[in-house]
Amino acid sequence: MNAALHHLWTPLSATPLLWLVVTLAAYVIGRQVQKACGGSPFASPVLIAILIVGATLLGTGTSYDTYFAGAQFIHFLLGPVTVALAVPLAENFALVRRHLSSIGLALLAGSLTSVISGVGLVWLLGGSRSVALSMAPKAVTTPIAMAVSDQIGGVPALTASLAILGGILAAIIGRHMLARFQIDDWRAHGLAAGVAGSGIAAAQVAALDEVGAAFAALGIGLNGLLTALLVPLLAALWR
Amino acid sequence: MTSAMLILVGCQLLGELLRATFQLPIPGPVIGMFLLALALGLRARRTGNDRTPAPLKPAAEGLIANMGLLFVPAGVGIIAEAGVIRKEWLPILVAVAGSTILSLIVTALVMHWTLRPTHTHDTNGEGRTS
Q1: Distance (Å) from the alpha carbon of B23 to chain A's nearest alpha carbon
Q2: Are residues A154 and A87 in the same domain?
Q3: Which domain holds residue A45?
Q4: Which residue out of A47, A57, A87 would a mutagenesis test of the B interface target, given it has the greatest number of B Cβ atoms within 10 Å?
Q5: Given CB atoms, is A231 within the 8 Å cutoff of chain B?
Q6: pTM (2 d.p.)
Q7: Over the stretch B62-109, which tens digit does the pLDDT of each residue have?
Q8: Which of residues 9-38 of B touch A (CB under 8 A)?
């Protein structure tokens, strides 16, 4: 970096504004790339933005803490958007009430599958206990996943990364995977996205279908509730 | 717009207060989501109209449409965890991919199978074996 640039960079890199702009710009680029790819789920704007910002941080030698001081204003909105999911949920209450037993069964089966297979696979492949425990709550929405991870002895930051990875994967392959099983029902698709991929997969479904959005919101909320109650119990048994 | 933001942040605050008061293991925003859904449901029953009132609906839809952006700051945290991920990349990758795909399929299949009878109003439906 030459002297003039360095002169500009040093004060800028410490203000929250710079990293706020970088995050927004990276996401806008991600969206443009997805549009250019004909809306393909493989060009996930979240993944593209994470890669751009990550590369920028590594390239400039900026610490994650410095970055987060700016990006936290975006991160904060995760709370209000979680609350906002009540809107598609409430508008489809009648639909949800009609299928309450299906939803309960699918939720329980999907949630247990996620926790047991996640912990089991780490254990089978010789991963450490703290990685296995960080894996357990990774299917639920990031703020819940981090809180549960902390409670059972996992690493919250690792859980957040895993939750994002899983969410991106579910968003990318969800439709193809379920199409292969001949499931074309938005209720099943939405709930599965919410239970297995939380917010990121739900965002993908919500953009496509309103009923899907309602069931995804329900999946996120109920799986968050179930996981917050169930995982600490299961973890207490595994000592 | 401001009143919609007040409703959303207010429900979140209420959720946080309930969580702190009763030592609930569920995060505040999720409690807030159920509170708002309950309030909207009660309002719909009273007015007989299940559409969400004007200022709240576009604000909620706008936030939800851009939800992906909100995961970027936490997602970038992966670089801070690079050490563990490099050391245990195989169990981590296999477990994330395996459990996500399994859970996705199991949830959707159970939902699909249990919905089918009420959906078609017959139980001898063809294609049950598929």
Answers
A1: 12
A2: yes
A3: 3-76
A4: A87
A5: no
A6: 0.79
A7: 888 888 898 889 888 888 788 888 889 999 999 999 999 999 999 999
A8: 9, 11-12, 15, 25-30, 32-37
Q: Helix/strand/coil (H, E, C) string of B51-112? A: CCCCCHHHHHHHHHHCHHHHCHHHHHHHHHHHHHHHHCHHHHHHHHHHHHHHHHHHHHHHHH
Residue in the block written with tokens 């500009």 = A8
Domain count, chain A: 2
Helix (H) or strand (E) holding A65: helix A64-76
Do A99 and A33 share a structural domain? no
Same domain membership, residue A97 and residue A181? yes
Q: Establish if A162 touches chain B: CB-CB under 8 angstroms.
A: yes
Same domain, A87 and A72: no
- Single out the residue in A76, A106, A140 at which a domain terminates: A76
B124 to chain A, minimum CA–CA distance in Å?
A: 18
CA–CA dist A156, A32 (Å, integer): 32
- Choose one of A76, A91, A119: the last residue of a domain: A76
Q: How far apart are CA B3 and CA B77, in angstroms?
A: 33
Segment A144-173, tens digit of pLDDT: 788 788 888 888 888 888 988 898 899 888
Same domain, A35 and A126: no
In terms of domains, do A46 and A92 share one? no
The phi and psi torsions of B87 (rounded to 5 degrees) equal -70, -40
A196 touches chain B (CB under 8 A): yes
